[in-house]
Amino acid sequence: MNVLTQPLAHKLIDLACRAPSVHNTQPWRWRINSDGSIELWADRDRQLRVADPEGRNLAISCGAALHHFVVAGRAMGVTPKVDLTPSPDDPDLLACIQVEQGIPSRDAADVLDAIKRRRTDRRRFTSWPVPDSRLTHLTQAAVGWGAFAIPILEASARFRCELLLTRAWVAQQADERFVQEQQEWIDRSAVDGVPLSHSATRARGSATYRNNRFASGSTGESWEALLESSDGLITICTPLDDQRAWLASGQALSALWLRATRNELSLVPLSQVVEVPETRSALYYDSFAGMAHAQILLRIGWQEIGRADLPRSPRRPVNDVLLP
User: Fold this and answer.
1) Which residue in 226, 214, 113 sits closest to 172, CA to CA?
2) Across 169-240, where does the E strand assignment appear?
3) I want to staple 64 with a disulfide (CB 3.0 to 4.6 A). Which of 163, 172, 250, 273 is the partner?
4) Does 132-301 match 6-117+314-321 at the fold level?
5) In DSSP terms, which residues pair with 300 in a beta bridge?
6) Is 10 helix (H, G, I), strand (E, B) or coil?
């Protein structure tokens, strides 16, 4: 029996589309089939050709949307069954989802609330340290989604990661094509891109904002300042480095991010180090001894109590992401 009504399908896709995506490109399309199945497609028109020529970040973004769909479905009383290899002849068809009758998950209200509250808040974290136990607890959220998360706890390992992040940032800022592409996604429209309010650099003397990749005139931060901070670092890794691994990384990213949101922690993705071939290779060989492919780094911290919430980044309406 087809349990997926049109209103329910639209609601689940709407919740899935709240997932994070690189530069808020939202590079996904969905198709609702007459048999009640739903297809997730890559929207290559929204792929970053300079920063993401292989489609790694596109697939990670779509994986996050897929995870949002699955957990939202479970919360709303259905059981999504996902096939990640629906068509070997068409790599743009990323997943096919069959929806079966189920019962709402016990934490349904918390899950749906986390999906609605999740933000990419690039403001500087407080100096309160994130305990190692908290970071380890967060990494456990990735279990079961095809990727694994590793907390970066040792000072020397954190130093290597921060060094590679800085090298990647410098390399990208020296590439005029990259800078132009990034600028095209800042304050782009009312339905996509990074809002100017989310990308502005901090004012002189203000400790509110950390310089970030979208900040005009950002100069990065010294290694010493970053190493002295109490920010936590986590990396999401996979044994292989192909499109299916990237999709799995996106699902793990979403699972970890929703848990962080429920635990009142803030998370900022750091994809730069993987976007630059030199630093991605160094991370693979130097940090993980050639045994795991790092797909994305995550910075974890606490936001100030009472700090005003950022508005949600814009999203495309459901009708705009549906395929005929």
Assistant:
1) 214
2) 232-238
3) 250
4) yes
5) 232, 267
6) helix
d(CA 122, CA 140): 24
| CATH code 3.40.109.10 for 132-301 | yes
Please give the distance of CA 229 from its chain centroid, rounded to a whole number: 23
DSSP state of 186: B
Q: Which among 137, 136, 139 is positioned nearest to 149, based on CA atoms? A: 139
Domain range summary for the chain, segments of one domain joined by +: 6-117+314-321, 132-301
Give the pair of three-digit tokens for residue 264: 């009142």
pLDDT band at 275 (very low <50, low <70, confident <90, very high): very high
Kindly tell me the sign of the dihedral angle through the C-alpha atoms of 44, 50, 54, 59. negative
Predicted pLDDT at 204: 40
- The yes or no reply on domain 6-117+314-321 and CATH 3.30.450.40 is no
Assess whether pLDDT exceeds 60 at residue 130.
yes
Burial letters 144-155, b for 16+ CB under 10 A, else e: ebbbbbbbbeee
Give how far Cα 200 sits from Cα of 122, 123, 176, 215, 307, Å.
Answer: 10, 10, 20, 5, 17
Separation between Cα atoms, residue 145 and residue 141, nearest integer Å: 9
The structure tokens listed for 164 are 């590679």
Q: What is the pLDDT of residues 221-266, one digit of tens each?
A: 554 455 445 689 999 999 999 999 999 999 999 999 999 999 999 9
Residue 106, both tokens = 């016990």
Residue in 252, 292, 9, 305 with CA at minimum distance from that of residue 138 = 252
Residue with tokens 């705009």: 320
CA–CA distance, 297 with 269 (Å, rounded to integer): 6
